[in-house]
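Structure (tokenized):
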């Protein structure tokens, strides 16, 4: 464990001094583009702020009786397609009206909406409906053109704030000290809970992470999940929380109160606090790219801020965003410093797999860690990249309109799509990339995971998605090895962790539980090692695929770190090389490491260096390493190594089973018993039937007491009916039972059971199998299954 460290985010203020500003309290504001903002004030003016030339213009002077309270621009992204401009916004006012106002400042329509003030108005995500909340306690839903659709709720006391749910199918609103979530569908269940010790004044709901924010007169802000479970509660501050707002990408949020602006991580802890002389901050608005924030101030000012000092680390490189258009690269090995300059402000960046990918508002820059001087630069179609994911050979950009896979040479490789895809709601928990596959949780059904081929952008294999029995909350693809072995780890709503194979070629997906009470996970970038936070401790699954060959061995392959290492609920950020980076509940970064020999064992086994693998295990003398080797060898049908490894951890029954496999008369039988070893009974049976080894298939079922199936096969192939009957009889005798099964009674009538004949027949089957195998091995020039 290395020392803890805080990442500091800097809020940067631009005060417009030389131009006009508001002469009274500013109540609300909203961005049109990354460089332009509208603000409304009690001075009845609507101003437009341009951040490129630092100019302010009056858009319109409203009539003296309009005191604005809330404004919201009509959404730019509608149905996955992006409108070029934000053209209209809703403005609510104290006189009980809302107004639809054009970009030019013309009031297109005014609607009498509530008795008393209209305290809030919000468009839904696809722009098909508007919700308003009033001092009269009513919540009303309106059409796009301002026709009343319904009164959703009558709450009895003023509703100060409303927000739409991530799918625009529910409304969250304040009701006194409580929060209420009401679905639009009339019969659906309403949720209500006590949220604060004073009136709740503001709420917000993020569509990417589905988390809810609330702030109140009790001077606290809180983070909730969409089931109303409290995730974070701040300590009480000096003044009531008058504004709060999620950054659209769901990574951070801002909280405003009297002379105070706070920037927080999505988990609730505070990155930075500023104390500007602004009076109360009545409204906060983030730009669509989540890089800039504006605040509406009680003293007539509008303040702007952006986030700096973000930091990325990979191996010996540390990169810091020092200005909006500039980064500093430090090589900690030799203290060499490089400065990277960009034409436009940086929106998102990612550093992994020896490459830095930077998205600005208009371009994408790709640097190799070997050369910081000559980036590859290409234009972006949409701007506003919301997520960058990297794999070894490719990277993926997500923007409001779609997802795009690029090579590090800047070539567009594919752009996966599916029906009703909502790229704007994708975050790193529900989309995962590796060199061959992209996995996405379906936004239409959270139980479903879709897989796409990186190269073609088409659905993988037979096109069938993976449907889990519960909603999936996090997914992660492993990063190494061939595409045919690709695995996905997933955490479901019950916090159970599963491992599933991705490419299953018509067979049923293999999916096995590998952990419980798991909060989040990350795969290693250089070997298929998984780590996760399990019940507040760090667990390392050294070889998760062990569940597919020998489930019972799984616990022996885990490394569990003592929870005393962490002071409060940590989250894994990434797992690169041997280093795990975690963020604790208080915001501090901590590092943990996994022993390097685990990755080394993976490397040896994947390149079939079994002797080296055995040497390593003998040297390290770690039981879990032996357990991993046993299972890796078994998965690769490397029986001699598996036998030794199982021996080293004292698994004697398994050692015996393996030597039994080695003595099988043919490779088909050996394969079938290896499948039986890992519990794949059906696969074992069909392997034998396919090889024409009918007797052996029957015997396998006898050994497992699958009597009905054994008899069925014997009857179908007209052979060894007597063998089945004989074993059955012996079995019943042993337990002092009488035959009651109709089929067995039926067949035992006409068949003579003679053990001597049966033994002779079996001996013949086995020698036939041996002879056939010997013939085959002569033909294939002695190639052996081992
Ligand atoms: C606008 O203001 C900022 C901060 O005060 C300043 O850095 C920038 O140079 C100004 N831009 C112009 C065009 O004056
Ligand atoms: C891991 O996470 C830390 C903290 O967010 C970040 O600085 C670093 O760049 C990440 N490293 C990789 C390889 O993604
Ligand atoms: C094995 O080869 C011998 C000689 O070619 C042949 O007579 C015999 O039938 C073969 N046995 C089987 C089981 O294929």
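Design, position by position:
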């Amino acid at each position: 464990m290395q020392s803890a460290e805080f990442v500091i985010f800097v809020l940067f203020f631009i005060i417009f001094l030389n131009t006009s500003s508001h002469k009274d309290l500013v109540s609300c504001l909203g961005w049109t583009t990354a460089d332009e903002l509208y603000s409304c004030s009690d001075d009845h003016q609507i101003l437009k702020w341009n951040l490129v030339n630092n100019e302010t213009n009056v858009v319109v002077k409203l009539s003296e009786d309009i005191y604005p309270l809330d404004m919201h621009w009509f959404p730019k992204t509608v149905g996955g397609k992006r409108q070029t401009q934000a053209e209209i916004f809703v403005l609510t006012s104290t006189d009980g009206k809302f107004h639809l106002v054009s970009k030019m400042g013309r009031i297109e329509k005014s609607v009498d909406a509530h008795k008393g003030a209209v305290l809030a108005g919000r468009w839904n995500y696809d722009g098909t409906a508007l919700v308003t909340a009033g001092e009269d306690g009513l919540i009303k839903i309106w059409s796009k053109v301002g026709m009343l659709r319904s009164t959703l709720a009558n709450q009895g006391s003023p509703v100060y704030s409303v927000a739409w749910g991530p799918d625009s199918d529910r409304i969250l609103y304040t009701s006194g000290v409580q929060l209420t979530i009401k679905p639009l569908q009339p019969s659906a269940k309403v949720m209500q809970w006590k949220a604060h010790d004073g009136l709740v004044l503001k709420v917000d709901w993020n569509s990417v992470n589905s988390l809810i924010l609330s702030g109140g007169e009790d001077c606290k802000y809180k983070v909730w999940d969409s089931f109303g479970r409290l995730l974070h509660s701040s300590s009480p501050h000096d003044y009531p929380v008058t504004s709060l707002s999620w950054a659209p990408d769901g990574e951070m949020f801002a909280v405003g109160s009297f002379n105070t602006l706070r920037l927080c991580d999505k988990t609730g802890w505070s990155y930075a606090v500023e104390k500007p002389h602004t009076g109360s901050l009545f409204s906060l608005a983030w730009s669509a790219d989540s890089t800039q924030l504006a605040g509406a101030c009680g003293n007539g000012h509008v303040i702007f801020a952006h986030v700096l000092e973000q930091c990325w680390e990979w191996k010996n490189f540390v990169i810091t965003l020092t200005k909006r258009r500039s980064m500093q690269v430090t090589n900690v090995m030799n203290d060499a410093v490089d400065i990277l300059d960009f034409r436009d402000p940086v929106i998102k960046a990612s550093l992994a797999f020896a490459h830095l990918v930077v998205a600005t508002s208009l371009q994408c820059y790709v640097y190799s860690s070997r050369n910081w001087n000559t980036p590859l630069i290409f234009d972006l179609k949409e701007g506003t990249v919301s997520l960058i994911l990297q794999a070894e050979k490719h990277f993926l950009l997500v923007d409001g309109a779609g997802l795009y896979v690029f090579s590090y040479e800047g070539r567009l490789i594919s752009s996966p799509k599916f029906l009703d895809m909502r790229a704007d709601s994708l975050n790193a928990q529900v989309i995962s990339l590796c060199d061959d596959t992209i996995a996405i949780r379906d936004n239409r059904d959270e139980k479903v995971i879709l897989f796409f081929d990186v190269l073609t952008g088409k659905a993988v294999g037979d096109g069938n998605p993976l449907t889990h029995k519960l909603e999936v909350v996090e997914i992660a693809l492993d990063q190494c090895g061939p595409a045919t072995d690709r695995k996905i780890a997933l955490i479901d709503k019950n916090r159970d962790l599963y491992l599933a194979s991705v490419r299953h070629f018509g067979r049923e997906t293999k999916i096995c539980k590998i952990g419980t009470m798991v909060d989040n996970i990350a795969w290693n970038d250089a070997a298929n090692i998984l780590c996760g936070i399990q019940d507040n401790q760090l667990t390392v699954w050294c070889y998760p695929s062990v569940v597919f060959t020998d489930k019972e061995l799984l616990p022996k392959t885990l490394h569990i770190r003592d929870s005393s290492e962490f002071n409060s609920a940590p989250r894994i950020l990434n797992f690169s090389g041997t280093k795990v980076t975690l963020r604790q509940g208080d915001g501090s970064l901590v590092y943990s490491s996994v022993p390097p020999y685990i990755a080394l064992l993976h490397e040896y086994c994947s390149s079939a260096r079994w002797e080296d693998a055995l040497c390593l295990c003998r040297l390290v003398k770690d039981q879990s390493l032996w357990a991993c080797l046993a299972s890796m060898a078994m998965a690769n049908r490397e029986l001699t190594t598996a036998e030794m490894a199982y021996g080293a951890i004292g698994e004697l029954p398994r050692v015996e089973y393996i030597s039994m496999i080695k003595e099988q008369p043919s490779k088909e039988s050996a394969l079938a018993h290896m499948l039986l070893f890992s519990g794949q009974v059906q696969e074992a049976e069909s392997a034998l039937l396919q090889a024409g080894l009918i007797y052996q298939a029957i015997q396998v079922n006898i050994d497992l007491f699958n009597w009905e199936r054994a008899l069925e096969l014997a009857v179908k192939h007209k052979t060894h009916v007597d063998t089945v009957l004989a074993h059955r009889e012996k079995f019943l005798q042993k337990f002092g039972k009488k035959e009651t099964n109709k089929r067995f009674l039926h067949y035992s009538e006409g068949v003579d059971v003679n053990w001597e004949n049966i033994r002779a027949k079996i001996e013949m089957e086995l020698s036939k199998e041996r002879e056939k195998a010997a013939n085959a091995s002569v033909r294939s020039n002695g190639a052996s299954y081992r």
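Reviewer-requested clarification: The longest strand covers residues 371-379. The radius of gyration is 32 Å.
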